[in-house]
Structures are given as structure tokens and as C-alpha cells.
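INFO  loader      accepted 1 record
INFO  loader      residues=334
INFO  predictor   begin
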Amino acid sequence: MSDFVILLLILFLIICLILTVVGFVFYTGLFSEVVIRTGSPPVKNITIAYKFRKGSYKASGAAFTESCSIGPKLSSVGVFYDDPNQTQADQCRYVVGSILCENEEKPDEELQRLYEKFGYKVISFPEVTCAVTSSFPNRCTLSPVCGAYRVYPELQQYIKERSLNAYPFLEICKGDLIHYMCPLENQKDFCVPELLEKKTSEETVEHKDAEVTESAAGEDATRRVSVLVGPSEPEQKSSPVIQEVVEESRDMVEASVPLMESSQPSLGEEEGQSEDGDQGGKGSSESVGSGSSFEELDMEVEEEKEEKKNEVEEEDHNGQQKPVMGETIGNREE
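INFO  predictor   done
INFO  writer      dumping C-alpha cells
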């Protein structure tokens, strides 16, 4: 066999491989047109057996495989509650399960017990009249993966452009189609109890954190006030370190008392000396004041004598007496 023939065989095999890959891609629906519309959803009220999970949506394939292995003839369903573009991958919440019945039908009791045996729970979703919907071919095991990469970005863009309140994202594998729907009403009816419990616990934790923060702020303020003003008696009793410091300060004060008492006599003597000096100064001032007062009295007596002489002379001259002046003079002599 010549080299030319070998080269032709290699080229033929490469072309066949390329055609096979392209054909498989078209078969999976990767290049299918994605049509998004708003209207009545493809399913009515449904009852599902589910498991609540938290983590990356990429790991949901194992959950779909588990639910399909229990009920291979049932349609599988997934409900995704968080946007992976805004939420961390390990914090995304979703449920995966199988549809037990639709509309007014009742679930098979044996099948329901089988799912419950494997840890699944049962819940019913109501019928909605308006939702954002789309579909994708379900032809092989890779169809859900291709549909996720093709449909979800288109759904998010459609909802964002029209400012719709569509939540959550439901993915239902039914027959040869994968239905995608986002309810525009009664969104809370599509939330499982585990999701509500998680929200309540998170709110409780946030509330407790807020209370702890407020109490810590109050304690900090109290400590600042105690530093400025001084601790209260209960705080002094409750803290042994503060008691030791207070006792040491008291011992130091008691030890300093004798020294202060010994220094008091000298101070008393100085004070006595100062007081004696003050008294001596006062006595000298009083003596000076008394001397001046005696001189004034002598002058007054001399003036009275002169006045008396003048009055006597006037009486002799006029023959009249002034009893009033005499009484006053007598009172002064007394």
C-alpha cells in the first residue's frame, strides 16, 4: 500500500470525525433557536418529590441522576433560587426531584414511600397563569447541559430588558423537551420549607449579631464613663484587681498619716508664733490707739473748762444761767 493511499485514509477518517462531532452537536440542540415568550406555562399544578441542596449548580447533574434512578419513567424537575452571577457558587440554593403527579391527579403511594425512603420530601406547586417560558430539545444526556448554557443567559437578558419580577427558575425535563419557566406571580409558593427556614435562621443570626454589637457598644461606653467618673461600688466588688489596687492605695494613705501628724506640731508652733506676733501687733496698735484717745480727752476737757469759764463770765455779766449747758457740762464731767 502506497503512502498516498494511507494519507487519503487518514484524511477520510478526520473528515468523518468532524462530521460526527458536528452532527452530534446539532443533535443535542446546541445550535437550536431559543425562543422566549411570556404567557401560560407548559405545566399546571404539580406534586414533586425533592431534596434541598446548597452548592454550585454544576453539581446538580448528580442529583438529577439520583432522582431519575429511583423513578426512571417520571419527569425530573429542578428549582434554582439564586443567580450564580450575584451569589457565590457554594451559597447557591436549589432543589432537584421528580414529578409525582400533575393537575388533579394523586401521587402513587408506593412511589411516594420509595422516594421518602431515600430522604426525599413531597411538596406541591400551584398553577400560575403567567410566566416567562422557553424550551430546549431533550435528546441525550448532554441536552440539559447544552440547554443551560443556551437558555439561561437568554432568559436573564429577557427579564432584565423588560424589568420583570420573575423568580425562581424552574427546569422540567418532560419527554423530548426541556421546559424552562420563571413565574411572574405567586413566587413564594415555589419556595420549599427548608429555604424559608434558612432565611429565618439567617435573619435571627443577623438580629443577634446586631444585639451583640449594640451591647458591646454599650459596654464600651460604660467603660469610658467609668474611666472618667470612677467605677461604681458593684463594679468594684465584682473586679478583684480593682479591689487590690484600692486596698494598696488605702494602705499607703494609712502609712502616710503618722508622717502627717508628726509634721503637724511644727506647723502648730509656727501658727502659734504667727498668732503671738499678730497679738503683739494688735496690742501695740491698741496702745497707740489708746494714747491718741487720752490726748483727745485732755483737749476736750480743756475746751470744756474754757467754755465753762466763758459761761460763768457771761452769767455774771448778764445775771442769767443756762441750765441746759450746765447739765451737759455736769454730764460731761461725770
